[in-house]
Amino acid sequence: MTNSSSKNKSPNVIRIIAGKWRSRKLPFVSEVETLRPTPDRVRETVFNWLQAKIIGARCLDLFAGSGALAYEACSRGAATVTAIDNSSRVKQMLQDNCDLLNCTAMKIILADSLSWLEQPGNEGLYDIVFLDPPYSKNVLPECCRLLDAGNFLAPGCAIYLESDHPLEDIELPSSWRFLKSKKAGQVYYGVCERLIN
Predict the structure, then answer these.
(1) Do strands 25-28 and 58-61 pair parallel, antiparallel, or not at all (unpaired)?
(2) Is 7 a residue whose pLDDT tops 50?
(3) What is the side-by-side strand order in the sheet with 153-163?
(4) Which of 21, 20, 103, 94 is nearest to 61 (CA)?
């Protein structure tokens, strides 16, 4: 839900941790209460886990929000990042920041993530997927199911999950297994791999 007073709200800032845009700061407007960037130390850990996969990877950020994960992936050498968000204001901010960075690797789509996953004819196979939905929506299990059932995941795809509940409580597809998981404050996060059939 959009707050009408947010048009006059000062932008918040995210910082890119590493890669070609290391230490660059980018504004984002928190127009919805559920928009919260993945914390710096969590991103640093996650991208250390993904460092062997990120160069040249095709990435999907299903709940782009501030763009923290998407820009970090682009900065570290991902070939493409498809970033999805259901807010037109957020989409515009993501595009403005792409223009600021001269980033051509990111494709920004205005859509509801679950509806997008249910549509036929997607963007192709992804090597890395970022799943960091608003905690209150409890959509992680359904996102995982739709990703696994659809033609989205490349062999050996890595899937990042973030939640405010223990990840072992989430029902994952049988072909997924956790590679790494940690907790930082109230944030539970981890990376799964989809096993190759």
Answers:
(1) unpaired
(2) no
(3) 106-110, 80-85, 58-61, 126-131, 153-163, 187-194, 176-184
(4) 94
Round to the nearest angstrom and report the end-to-end CA distance of the chain: 41
Are 159 and 89 in contact by the 8 Å Cβ rule? The answer is no
Asked whether residue 178 carries a pLDDT value surpassing 70, the answer given is yes
Q: Where are the beta strands (DSSP E) in 113-186?
A: 126-131, 153-163, 176-184
Which alpha helices (DSSP H) does 58-184 contain, by range? 68-75, 88-101, 113-118, 140-149
The per-residue pLDDT for range 40-99, each reduced to its tens digit, is: 889 999 999 999 999 999 999 999 999 999 999 999 999 999 999 999 988 999 999 999
The answer to whether the beta carbons of residues 14 and 42 sit under 8 Å apart is no
CA 184 to CA 128: how far, in whole Å?
Answer: 22
- CA dist., res. 43 & res. 56, Å (int): 19
Whether residue 194 is predicted with pLDDT greater than 50 in this model: the reply is yes
Among all chains, which residue has been given the structure tokens 């004819």? 121
Mean pLDDT of 158-165: 94
